[in-house]
Amino acid sequence: MTVDDVADVRTGDKGDTAIVAVFPRRSEMYDAVLNAMSEDAVASFLGAGVTGPVRRTPMRGVRGIVFEVPGLLGGGVTGSPVLDGHGKCLSYLVATMPLPGLGHPL
């Protein structure tokens, strides 16, 4: 199972930091997704472009999980040599992240 099987993902940017928000579609999946998407798991999945610790903020009121991922945008919108300086394509990449231990979506 991947993030895309159970959640919607949105991304944005704050300078060189990618902001990734994950919203499980069903409330009963929130805790399982939260447990599967630790800071270390997300950093490992996104790879070598991550330049510092990933920060995760659970937002139970809106059933969302927000990740701040430093360095992933290669300098940010105006300074990045990469094609996607805003990080908008990262939502698709994060959606492909496997969620070990989760069965089929409810």
TrEMBL record:
It comes from Rhodococcoides kroppenstedtii. Residues 1-98 form the AtuA-like ferredoxin-fold domain. This is AtuA-like ferredoxin-fold domain-containing protein. InterPro entries: AtuA-like_ferredoxin_dom (IPR056362). It holds the Pfam family AtuA_ferredoxin. It comes from the Bacteria.
